[in-house]
Amino acid sequence: MEVGGNNQNVERLKRASRRIWTKQEEDAFVTILEDLVTKDYRCDNRSFKLGTNLITEKALTNIFPTCGIKVNPHIDSKMKVLRKQYSIVYDILSKSGFGWNDVKKCIEVDNGQGAETPADIVDDINRNHVIDNMGDEEESLN
């Protein structure tokens, strides 16, 4: 019985040690990545070159000296989340009846031209992501 209790404590510690990024840290992170893209730190396959995450860690440490953000697990995890979010937005925008509003920085729905309902689009995207995640494909932005 104690073995199960220890496993629960380990799981609780893992959840408690997750880092919550501040808005300022996230903004700086994205700005650093944008800067690295303009400096050709991306490969032809649109993934970042080796060592980019370490450069990002050093830049974040210069901006926020006490933040404690490390490549692993913080930056690696944030990159994975951003890749997933980008993929979802890209999938939605590829469907008819959706567009990007540059002023509000959000997706808009055009209800006038027989577009699928937003719920149908979300179901379709979720179905496709489940299928994509079943394969042996690795995410290559890292």
Automatic annotation (TrEMBL):
Q: Which residues form the Myb/SANT-like domain?
A: 21-109
At the top level, the lineage of the source is Eukaryota
| Record InterPro entries | Myb/SANT-like_dom (IPR024752)
Q: Which Pfam families match?
A: Myb_DNA-bind_3 (PF12776)
Query: What PANTHER family does the entry give?
Result: MYB/SANT-LIKE DNA-BINDING DOMAIN PROTEIN-RELATED (PTHR46250), OS01G0523800 PROTEIN (PTHR46250:SF15)
Designated name of the protein: Myb/SANT-like domain containing protein
Q: What taxonomic ancestry is recorded?
A: Eukaryota, Viridiplantae, Streptophyta, Embryophyta, Tracheophyta
